[in-house]
Prior knowledge:
single chain, mainly alpha, Growth Hormone, Chain: A, 2 domains, 21 helices, about 80% helix, globular
Amino acid sequence: MARTEPLGARAEWRRYWPLPLVAALGLSSSGLATHAIGPLMVPLAQEFGWSRAQISAGLTVCSIGSVLFLSLMGMLVDRWGSRRVGLAGVLLMPAAFALLGTATGGFTNWLVLWCGMAFGALWVSGTTWTPAVASRFDAGRGMAVALTVSGGALSLVIFPPLVTALMQSFGWRQACFLTAAIVAPILFLLVYFFFRDARNDPGSNPTERAEAAALSGGIGLAEGLRMRAFYALLLAGGAFTFSLVGTMVHIVPMMISLGDTPVTAAWIASLAGFASLAGRLATGALLDRFPGYLVGAVAYFLPIAACLLLLTGGAHLPVQIAAAIIFGLTMGAELDVVTYLATRYFGMRHIGTMLGTVMSATSAGLATGPLVAGMIFDRFASYAPFMMITIGLMLVSGAALLSLRRTPMFAADH
């Protein structure tokens, strides 16, 4: 088969623009585990007498599931294709959320229900959606991946108000069922009609098939697991997520500990949220124009400045705002950078497996960072020690990315 000249970024977007949009919506369904549970906390506590920690234990189950099984899910993506996995996922995840409405009040029952959520979440993680997007985009891959992973922020926009509105009208149990009944058919239809993985479902158009083949190169699995880049991304992603997610989960109590009122602290946190979305898109644009390892290293070094600001002048509101915006800008970059660099260093041949393995490290950071930050505050009545840990880990993660240097170029496997 003759090689086809790669499309430019504009041509890629003209031809495939629905793909990252649908991928972002598909990824947003993973927010049923993180953002849809918030509105349910008060009624669950009132009905069952549970603490917030007991209710939140389900998220720990999800994180553990991701750490243990994302690599296996990546293998499934490589074998079946993103489209098939995504179609199953947008049904499984809402169904698991609906089952939360059957909770009996027993804590063991609650954890079992969250095992179902953990299973559903595996099918709609970034490991499912980003390989398909990367298989269609080359010149514009950075922005396409950034738009895809912004689905995580999109879930924060969609699910809390949706679940709250349904809960106020029908009660929390019915809200679980109705949310699933709304989300599942919409996402299933969008994925069915507009989401196609070029590697496993390239379609019948000869031009598209040739373009898919031109992007299908990559290393073997055994070779990838021996590459220095694999361990650099594993270290960078895990250290970064541990530090920054730990900080962002605690940003409101952190600002309160620095002297802010709860209202002011929440306002500062919202600024970080807006900065996160801006940072995500800006990082995608930069990845398409500059070396990925360099963009990633700069993004991973940024939180050091925010930590130093809080450690030296954290009592001042302008300093707190500046630090929160820096944290937010960087928070928008972590998944973009790891995903983009994984596709560049490993190619598309086994990207599901490689990306799933790398993302298991970020899931481990997600599971442990907030916990450690809370334990440190309980011990020292201050977040300053965690800020110093963050500085050290950001230096490590940024240096790991700087060590990558030039990315390889892959030929098509034909």
